[in-house]
Please model this.
Amino acid sequence: MKEVCYIGLDVGTSGCKASVVDSKGKILASARREYKFESLAPGRVELNPVMVWEKVQETLKEVAAAGYEPRMMSVSSIGETLVLMDEQDRVLCNGIIYLDERGTETMDEIREKISDVQIHRITGIPLNYMFSLNRLLWLRKHEPKLIEKTSSYFMFGDYITYMLTGERMIDPSTASKSMMLDAWKLDWSGELGELFQVPFSRFSPVAPTGTIAGTIRKELALELGLPPELKVAAGCHDQCAATLGSGGVGAGDMAAGEGSSESLNLVAEQEDITEKFLKKNICFEPYVKTGQYLVPVGQFSHGTCIRWFVQEFGWDYQAGYGQSLRDPVREGKSVYDIAGETCAGDAGELFFLPYMTRSKLMEPDNPALGVFAGVDVKADRGKMYRALLEGLCFETRKCFDILETASLPVRQIVAAGGCSRSRLFMQMKADVLEKPVSILKNIDAGITGLAMICAVADGQYKDYREAAGLFVKTGEELKPQRDYREKYLKYRRISQAAKELYQNL
Model:
């Protein structure tokens, strides 16, 4: 009897990964390929869809060589970025990703026709130039001949699905990152289409996550070594996949993605989405289960701050790692453990504002950059490192405060990603948040989530909650031990002062 298994394919901004996963969540084979941004001019950051597709094929071919016979595949991807194709299915240009600085001037064009509050109310997305609607308006203005040649508009998730099957389909969570989806009707917004003359007939039709888009193209299956009967199910935005793979199945479940950036993804029911979201500029996007929404908050500079500190001030932390921090262990210890061994037990009055970039997810109007405050002659490396970790945790707490103002309770927190390997850091996070934090055992929560989507769509489980019982495994639960409330209030005052200082420079 053939083993029931699936393929989860995660297409990110810096690389793609595919894994074969059995029906109980065990990863049987994996492959990864990396790719780079293309920056043809200052302020421009692009991703080549053709290159990404080539790397996806290489990845799938490698996992296919492991000899398993997967029954279904699902794809998660980055959001926001558009892929333009002509009538011959040729990609016309690179995709403009969220780091690209073009398009701020077209925000005024949007505001001339609709208010910030109204577009947020329709789409769940606070107005921001990084989303697809704004990019489309910029291309119309600056690349009109390119738009004239365009026959089909994709985002990366449905672009890969189309290349796999020849069929068009996009899930609601990915489509929502366009800032053109009606987040309540789970379909392209007729009102926005009329206001901005968006040809939604050239976009993929929207269908719920888990809907079968089609079967892999026969010639592609033969070329890659995959079963010709392999079905492809509509996947989701990568943050949704990671949240599902962390056990996020009910209201109050939070997945804390502890990577280069921190994404705190909270599952909420439709009735939890109120006018308070509009007042706080909180994003909400359709989740994998119809009627549920994902509420993401977080910070762009997270693991980036730790990496910067280790590289610039902790050369001895890295001994044996070469030029990279990707190697997870040295003599059984992660680089986070080694750094933690020199971390002071108390940072005293030393504070660190972890603003390593001017771009801030929750405070887009905050121009402040990174600051060590309270430095005296006793401020050694150990205290500075502890202040850095505390600063990151305090920023996480600020995100929690925003959720509380929107009356969204957090029932459980499951942490995953590279930074979750640091027990010291995760214990500090539990202390600052005043909530238990569990550590996810699954290395790739996103891949696990995609496999769960396949398993439910394939009828192996009645729903995601049942699938999570076998697929999702957590380790130690860290409970609050230390009181940070007084220091957190001081941090809030210092961060506000830094914001005002930079605004007045």
